């Protein structure tokens, strides 16, 4: 689905699209000192996942991130560390609406070549990291056609109207209502005009961009149902939920590097058969010609037959660094050492073990999680560096 | 807060209260083969956590769990395994409302001594495990007084009305509306009468018990704002969120058992000072006289000075089994061995390590997670059995 969306995206979106990402909120509701958009999941700030969801799409030109002044440097550092080249950081206002307006104004400054005026602007939340290309395409195309569009979800709870004394007045008929979510899309001229015209009351108490487009420009937004993963990371528990989703996604594919030895190839084939829940590729080496396979996944099983005891690991890690593969997600390497010859003595084993553990604790600094398995004809030694991916 | 609620509960609730827990739903939305209420968190089914939230309260007499026929035996086994003595299992209907009505009918059968007719009945969801005594008290007392009561939460998203063509019609003013959640409380006679009178349409398409009480008995429910942890475990990611909450709760206290040796007592005091995020007790032994301390927490640090190498572990584990402490939550025991005398030889160390690992893999069957730390004057050996509590 993602791939066909990508093909469709390049073809259908022949106009400039930009994103405004308000990230000015404080983390009060989380019960955490850090605002939630800067909390880390697998060692990376939440907002970086959200930015990447847009930045990976060729048809999105610019991502304007609106942050509180005190987080300006933090945000610049995040953009640098995770190579977010499409990001432009601007300062937020005292409310969500003021922050969004500040973000939109960045495009009206025609002297900045990083922020040319877009045809369509997508407004999203920094704390909704899981947004897929197919939904973004639908939102963008509907905004181009109708002037405004927004993601919706069915209501999870019955909505009730309350009396002023705190009693049930009536309950709403669920089928007629929807929860308004993000992302939302707008013709830039429409949403910018709406914000230019709206009142102080709107800036202070308004919550809904779609409502402003309707009130000030008469634009009825097209509503598009999104998946449940659009939910907003709000509470501390949501960080655990987001981590679970990321881990599950990362665990869906693997690449097996098997060299040329007959036993290694046999083992690779057996593994591929048994890993039938994952999409697997088997290749013969981690050389440049295989970059396509190396780039497809974050999980690698390297089966080695040489007696050289993990000496190939540093070279392999270097290769991943070269293709920038460890920047966004941790990389899992399981190094399988097949020793079909006679066993080495126990003291030698202990030295190898110590060396491997040292290597593992070194490469983890570069976001590589290294595990080792040594298979002798009589026994299996499992060397675990760090348990990360469930 | 919990303790004062408990005192208040015994005093204020001088009438019989029962619970109906509909657990008939299927797990479709989770993308899982198991219905979500039977999915396990830390090796225990979700529904057992929910049952325990009620069963621990002295003023709640009975918990009627309504399950699909095919899950009857599974549910009985869960009740047996986790010692849910207040549970009565009844069969569900084809909709949520039919299941709740079946649950309520269990109390109208006056020949069953386990289910005497209650004054107030609380209706809850099997998939909302985190419900605290103070909220249950408020719901119960309001139901007694007003006839009906229900937990509410602020709306997390703007609610919008849609046109039949899928466009925005208008957005609701958020302040006037609330999300209706669970638990809800009713005078038994009112909700039973409402269900006896309601139509086939209500049974088939209705969602809101509060609405039935209003429509058929003219009872306006009192609405009570609950905490965010009332949320419904709906998606697979919610299981990870629930696990994070349970782990956090379990990590809030510890008991240090330090014996009489001067170095052990000193280490215990130092630990207590440094574990200032947790509530800690220091006691001298795990004997019967200290059951009060042992029962307060799931986390134990045992500091041993004898040279007898973990020989006290099985006895300690037996003690926890005797007080039924490992039934509901995993127990974490960190065994600290202080060896102030000269070091033993390396081969002896290896044997001890092997023995400890064997012991750890044995006691984990009984829900005890055993970690070991050996402190010699020159080096620290860390023996990890299983990483569970973050
Ligand atoms: Mg935000
Ligand atoms: Mg249910």
Architecture blueprint of SSEs:
The structure is a homodimer of 390-residue chains.
Chain A: H1 2-12, E1 17-22, E2 40-41, E3 44-45, H2 46-55, E4 60-67, H3 72-81, E5 87-91, H4 96-105, E6 120-123, H5 133-146, E7 148-153, E8 158-162, E9 168-171, E10 177-187, H6 188-197, H7 200-205, H8 209-217, E11 222-225, H9 236-250, E12 253-257, H10 262-274, E13 279-283, H11 291-295, E14 299-304, H12 313-322, E15 331-339, H13 346-363, E16 368-376, E17 380-383
Parallel strand pairs in A: 1-4, 1-6, 4-5, 7-11, 12-13, 12-14, 14-15, 15-16
Antiparallel strand pairs in A: 2-3, 6-10, 7-10, 8-9, 16-17
The structure holds magnesium ion (2 copies).
Folded structure, characterized:
Two copies of one chain form a homodimer. Chain A is an alpha/beta fold. The first copy, chain A, folds into two domains: 2-156 and 168-247, Spore Coat Polysaccharide Biosynthesis Protein SpsA, Chain A (Alpha-Beta Complex); 251-383, Rossmann fold (3-Layer(aba) Sandwich). Chain A has helices at residues 2-12, 46-55, 72-81, 96-105, 133-146, 188-197, 200-205, 209-217, 236-250, 262-274, 291-295, 313-322, 346-363; strands at residues 17-22, 40-41, 44-45, 60-67, 87-91, 120-123, 148-153, 158-162, 168-171, 177-187, 222-225, 253-257, 279-283, 299-304, 331-339, 368-376, 380-383. In chain A, the strands form four sheets. In chain A, strands 5-4-1-6-10-7-11 form a seven-stranded mixed sheet, with helices on both faces. A six-stranded mixed sheet of chain A has the order 13-12-14-15-16-17, sandwiched between helices. The first copy, chain A, is elongated and about 80 Å long. Chain A starts with a helix and ends in a 7-residue tail after the last strand. The interface between A and B is large, with 55 and 55 residues. Strand 8 (158-162) of chain A pairs antiparallel with strand 10 of chain B, so a sheet runs across the interface. One magnesium ion is lined by residues 22-23, 25, 125-127 of chain A.
């Amino acid at each position: 689905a993602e791939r066909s969306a990508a093909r469709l995206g390049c073809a259908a979106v022949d106009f400039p699209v930009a994103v405004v990402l308000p990230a000015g909120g404080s983390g009060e509701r989380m019960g955490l000192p850090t605002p939630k958009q800067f909390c880390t999941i697998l060692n990376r700030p939440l907002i970086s996942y959200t930015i990447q969801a847009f930045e990976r799409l060729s048809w999105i030109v610019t991502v304007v991130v609106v942050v509180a002044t005190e987080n300006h440097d933090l945000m610049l550092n995040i953009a640098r560390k995770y190579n977010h080249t499409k990001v432009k950081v601007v300062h937020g206002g005292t409310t969500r609406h003021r922050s969004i307006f500040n973000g939109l104004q960045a495009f009206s400054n025609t002297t900045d070549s990083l922020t040319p005026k877009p045809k369509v602007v997508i407004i999203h939340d920094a704390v909704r990291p899981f947004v897929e290309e197919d939904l973004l395409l639908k939102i963008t195309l509907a905004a181009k056609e109708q002037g405004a569009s927004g993601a919706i979800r069915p209501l999870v709870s019955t909505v009730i109207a309350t009396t002023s004394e705190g009693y049930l007045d009536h309950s709403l008929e669920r089928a007629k209502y929807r929860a308004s979510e993000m992302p939302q899309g707008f013709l830039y001229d429409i949403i910018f005009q709406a914000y230019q015209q709206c009142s102080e009351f709107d800036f202070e108490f308004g919550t809904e961009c779609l409502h402003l487009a309707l009130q000030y420009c008469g634009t009825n937004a097209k509503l598009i149902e999104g998946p449940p993963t659009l939910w907003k990371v709000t509470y501390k528990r949501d960080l655990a939920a987001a981590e679970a989703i990321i881990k599950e996604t990362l665990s869906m594919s693997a690449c097996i590097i098997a060299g040329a030895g007959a036993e290694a190839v046999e083992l690779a084939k057996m593994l591929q058969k048994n890993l039938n829940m994952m999409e697997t590729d088997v290749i013969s080496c981690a050389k440049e010609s295989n970059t396509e396979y190396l780039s497809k996944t974050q999980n690698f099983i390297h089966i080695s037959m040489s007696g050289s005891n993990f000496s190939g690991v540093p070279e392999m890690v270097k290769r991943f660094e070269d293709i920038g593969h460890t920047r966004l997600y941790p990389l899992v390497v399981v190094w399988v050492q097949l020793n079909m010859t006679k066993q080495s003595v126990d003291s030698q084993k202990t030295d190898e073990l110590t060396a491997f553990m040292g290597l593992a604790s070194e490469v983890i600094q570069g976001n590589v999680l290294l595990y080792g398995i040594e298979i002798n004809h009589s026994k299996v030694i499992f060397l675990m560096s760090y348990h990360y991916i469930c």
